[in-house]
Amino acid sequence: MLGSFAGLGALTALAAAGCAAPSGAGSGQTRLRYWHLFGGGDGANMAAMLDAFQAEHPDLDLQAATLSWGSPYYTKLGMAGAGGRAPEVAALHLARLAGFAPGRLLDPFDLDLLAEHGITEADFPADLWQRGMVDGELYAVPLDTHPLVLYYNTDVCERAGLLDGDGRLRAIEGADAFAEAVRAAGEVTGRPGLVAETLGADTIGPWRMFNAFYAQTGGQLLTEDGTRIAIDDAKALTVLDYMRRLTQEGLCVERADYPGAVGIFAAGETGFFLNGEWEVTTYTNNGLPFSMARIPNLFGTAATQADCHAFVLPHQRGRGGASNEAAHAFVAWMLKHSVDWAAGGHVPAYLPTLEEPDYLAMRPQSEYREVIDEVVLDPRVWFAGSASPLWLELGAVLSGVLLGTRTPEGALAEARSRLQQLLDTPSPFGETA
What is the pLDDT of residue 103? Predict the structure, then answer.
């Protein structure tokens, strides 16, 4: 899993050549290059926002590039920053920030310049803003959070007696109560009441499920400084036993890769789907009778696994001037228009958006907005965050618990072993400057 990052240092010279600046902007325009990794529905929403930004800023020449999601994107972005010839602004998963060598591969934001455009710390959840801070400087501005949520088929759940008078899912508290709700939905469909990603190449669903439930127990994965394993075995085994129970008792579809899980819920074959919120457009366009809710509090604390999309300033030699001012103006504009971004299911990190009438009118997107205060990001280590070695390594291990090919105890021992290997591996991006 580490191979896609290997040899970054040797590629620095290539970065200087391969990431050379594109052709100049039109006469009188300031060039603004933006790299991102948004495809599918996210890509369409981003493209519409970029068109609107360009229309409002004719003095800027916005040059947006969509790159391949995951490791290819981060390798290229790291190379660009290492060579000092990066774009003016880029997207980054916030949980990856610690491993992206802020101060070497990324430049800090100018807080005064952001404030001139109306963006301050008070506009964000404190935890998310602080995750963008390194050594007293701001290196990432959160755009959203994309948490694990609970999709539910409103027709199935109504027939199962699980909805309230307003057609929303009744409150579910506790692991047993959730199991019974899933069982009731399954009695309606004649199939397991829940579907989630349980297998497949590069599967991450099992890790995301475990991390959401484990966070609810109050358990920690690593120490605060990210140097040692801090797993509470009793809490972890409680969660792993429960995950195995879901498939062993026929409550959750046992074998489903990601596309299969999306399709099973789309076909109305299950009452519930545990997944990230980004499939909202898929089901809305299909006319599926569904809604969404926060992950129920199963183990004592309201919490769920999440990452965040954020804006960063990739390192440029001599960053400053009109192009840097344009990058700050761009970030501020995107945040202030993030109600358009929320259409794809992500919860805006810019708090004023959560009170906008247009956002509150979005259903089901606004139904789970309170999750903004409950999200749990990965530890601050280089190997964490979306599409990271942490997700892939532990996703593969924990998949076996759901499939019944690993015991909870065996999976925990293997997870500890793989975590230690990651801790012992130096960051391929180098240390923070």
Answer: 87
Q: What is the DSSP string of 330-362?
A: HHHHHHHTHHHHGGGSPEESSGGGGG-HHHHT-
What's the token pair of residue 152?
Answer: 């539910």
Lowest-pLDDT range, 30-34, 38-42, 277-281?
38-42
**pLDDT confidence tier of residue 62, bands split at 50, 70 and 90:** very high
Strand partners, 60: 30
* Total-model pTM: 0.91
Q: What is the pLDDT, as a whole number, of residue 84?
A: 81
User: Cα separation of 179 and 375, whole Å?
Assistant: 23
Q: What is the DSSP letter of 141?
A: E
C-alpha angle 277-301-408 in degrees, rounded to nearest 5: 80
> Residues 76, 79, 85, 87: is their CA dihedral positive or negative?
positive
Residues 78, 204, 269, 187, CA torsion sign: negative
**8 Å CB contact between 276 and 355:** no
Backbone angles phi, psi at 226, to 5 degrees: 70, 25
> From the CB of residue 335, how many other CB atoms can be counted at a distance below 10 Å?
25
Looking at residue 4, what is its pLDDT? 34
Cα 426 to chain centroid distance, Å, stands at: 24
Spatial CA neighbour of 374 closest among 138, 143, 215: 215
The residues, ordered by sequence, that sit 6+ positions from 5 with a Cβ below 8 Å of its Cβ are 71, 74, 75, 78, 428, 429
Query: For residue 73, what are the contacts with CB-CB under 8 A and spacing of at least 6?
Result: 35, 37, 67
Q: Is 426 exposed, middle or buried (0-12, 13-18, 19+ CB in 10 A)?
A: exposed
Q: What is the pLDDT of residues 209-257, one digit of tens each?
A: 999 999 999 999 999 999 999 999 999 999 999 999 999 999 999 999 9
DSSP tally for the chain: helices H, then strands E: 16, 15
Which residue shows structure tokens 């690593």?
Answer: 222
Q: How far is CA 330 from CA 52, 56, 67, 376, in A?
A: 11, 11, 19, 28
How far is 377 from 305, CA to CA, in rounded Å?
A: 6
Count CB-CB contacts under 10 A for residue 120.
Answer: 11
| Cα radius of gyration (the chain) | 22
| Residue 80 and residue 88 in contact, taking contact as beta carbons nearer than 8 Å | no
**How far is C-alpha 124 from the geometric centre of its chain's CA atoms?**
17
Distances (CA, A) of 269 to 185, 196, 215: 10, 12, 29
The pLDDT, as a whole number, for residue 360 is 97
